[in-house]
Specification:
There is one protein chain. With about 260 residues, the protein is α/β, with parallel strands linked by helices. It is built from 9 helices and 14 strands. The protein has a 6-stranded mixed β-sheet, with helices on one face. A 6-stranded mixed β-sheet has the order 7-8-9-10-13-14. A hairpin with a 2-residue loop joins strand 2 and strand 3 (about 25-30). The longest helix is centred in the C-terminal third of the chain and has 15 residues, at about 185-200.
Length: about 260
């Protein structure tokens, strides 16, 4: 498995720096800011071996050109991306080897149509999911549909519960505030909120999360839960007839929260 180190960027982004015990070099996920990565290269004295991209938004890709101008490295990313500096285009279920570790590519459209994530299945599994799954949240639907994002949640639910989740924004407390509005009596949400408050007070990241925790606290992974359905119905003030109806309602609710 990778050692995943968060490199804070902008106001709330994390660029994940991946290293392994058995390989030299580092890989970075979604380097929106090249300067942050260059500083990490200098500090760790590890050469940059590759870039992994999850989607095309500039806060995830903005540093790529500067880094590839400096270092002759491969750039992995979605084959259908409008971002043009991808040298190794990837499609659903492809496998790549990075620093001796296997990553399985999964297409997860919704936040953007080109969004992918990377799943490392061995040891303690690891998921590098960009802006699709957050601690207690999911990505806003800029290009895709609620049905697509719900399909993504079903995929995440199918992963081993000990899978660590490395998303790319520090949104946890805001997401937990919304989750508490949806399920005010959920003690797991209350406990997660207290833990995240302590971490942020110490200027520490709240990530990674894991699938087991998300199944207990994330309303977007709990859209088949009766309490979430009741809350969605209360928000819409109309009948909710399916899991997709629930998911659509709470995604709209979160947009306006």
């Amino acid at each position: 498995m990778f050692t995943a180190t968060p490199l804070p960027a902008f106001t709330d982004n994390y660029i994940w720096m991946l290293t392994t015990e058995n390989s030299t070099g580092m890989v970075v996920v979604d380097p929106g800011d090249a300067d942050v990565v260059i500083q990490a290269i200098k500090t760790t004295r590890q050469p940059l071996a590759a870039i992994l991209l999850t989607h095309h938004h500039p806060d995830h890709t903005g540093g790529v050109k500067q880094l590839t101008d400096m270092y002759p490295i491969p750039v992995y990313g979605p084959a259908n991306s409008p971002f043009k500096d991808i040298s190794h285009p990837l499609t659903d279920q492809m496998e790549i080897n990075i620093l001796g570790e296997t990553l399985i590519v999964k297409e997860v459209p919704g936040h953007t149509l080109d969004h992918i994530c990377y799943f490392q299945p061995t040891g303690t599994p690891q998921l590098f999911c960009g802006d699709t799954l957050f601690l207690a949240g999911c990505g806003r639907l800029f290009e895709g549909s609620a049905a697509q994002m719900l399909d993504n949640m079903h995929y995440f639910t199918s992963l081993p519960e000990n899978t660590n989740i490395y998303c790319t924004h520090e949104y946890s407390l805001a997401n937990l505030a919304f989750a508490a509005a949806v399920e005010p009596n959920n003690h797991d949400i209350q406990q997660a909120t207290e833990k995240c408050r302590m971490l942020r007070a110490a200027n520490q990241p709240t990530l990674p999360s894991n699938i087991a925790q998300e199944l207990k606290i994330n309303p977007f992974m709990r859209s088949n839960n009766q309490q979430v359905q009741i809350a969605a119905q209360g928000y819409k003030k109309t009948s909710i007839n399916s899991e997709l109806d629930t998911f659509t309602a709470i995604r709209e609710w979160k947009n306006n929260f």
